């Protein structure tokens, strides 16, 4: 048998199993393979070869087709059925040249064929081709392992982030600690529902003095963690628990009074642009409510027009528009004044309500909200806000809203019946 040149470096193929009932043929093949640097195992039958495969799976099998007992084709089929960690390349040695026979061998799982007597140069070329395939298979396996490992790490990280976001959601919801408060002549109910784990909406109420309260709704641009962090920062600026830190309040003697809402909006705009390095901005509606007289003074900074529902059921939108806070230096805001009477109620809501979209893209808008409040005329307090969520879900065709939904509902109690 003529000798071939030096073998290329062996990487994917190290162990070769030679299966032939002819000892001479095995010795001839094994001599060349060992000279090329392969570790060679010999077997004289298919059954013996299977035992070797179970003990130490080979990278490459060279098997004669025609053998007594178990043929090379049957051995190949059994070899393919074995469980192993990587692919094994299988070359059948045969004197057959019929295309139908070769197709039958490929169906049984053979990767390649060599015609006997085997030419060493052709054998080297077929082994090199098999090695390229095994290299690609093992590279792909390694890449899949790395991908699966990375996915496992990402899933662990996602689970950790999800747990953190759930805690963040609880903390954000705690910013609206009193969902309903009875104030004597009036009652306040609040709703905060984020479209994701956390959101950029916030609603709140803070006492001013014996007869005044402050109400606000705000909506920070964007969604997610950065918006939620900004709402937490803004909650501190409008805190009811720490009036000395509330920018909407000023101390007069031993008491606090509320600054004109427009001036507070302008102060927040200056503060936002000068001290907070962020690309966020926010819309705001801030109202000073006199519970004794029903007088309301409010400033609107890009927030939706609030809805007043009168005692007879009529709904009207009030406001003066205005720029969002944190967009333009020196922005000016206007105070708007109106009066609430016994039986009236005021809803301050985010654009997640009026911009809620139906499946065809139609927005609820102010008219849709007015109709909704009309249908909920007899529903009060938190029940009214929860019912509004149900109606929004019916309108949208889903309760997974695209935007955060928030609202403050101030209800002036009806006058007691006269004697």
Q: What is the mean pLDDT?
A: 87
Strand order of the largest sheet: 6-7-18-17-14-15
* Biggest pleated-sheet summary: 6 strands, antiparallel
> Structural class of the secondary structure composition?
alpha+beta
The total count of strands amounts to 18
- What fraction, in percent, of the residue positions are helical? 25-40%
Approximately how much beta-strand content do the residues carry?
15-25%
- Silhouette: rod-shaped
Low-confidence stretches: none
C-alpha Rg (nearest Å): 40 Å
Question: By CATH's scheme, which homologous superfamily of the largest domain applies?
Answer: PPM-type phosphatase domain
CATH-derived architecture of the largest domain: 4-Layer Sandwich
Give me the number of helical elements. Answer: 10
Protein name: PP2C family protein-serine/threonine phosphatase
Modified residues (4-aspartylphosphate): 64
EC number: 3.1.3.16
Keywords: Hydrolase, Phosphoprotein
Give a description of the structure.
With 419 residues, the protein is of the alpha+beta class. It has 2 domains: 15-143, Response regulator (Rossmann fold), CATH 3.40.50.2300; 175-412, Phosphatase 2c, domain 1 (4-Layer Sandwich). The protein is built from 10 helices and 18 strands. The strands form 4 sheets. It has a 6-stranded antiparallel sheet. A hairpin with a 3-residue loop joins strand 6 (180-182) and strand 7 (186-193). The longest helix has 55 residues, at 120-174. The radius of gyration is 40 Å and the shape is rod-shaped. The termini are far apart. The mean pLDDT is 87.
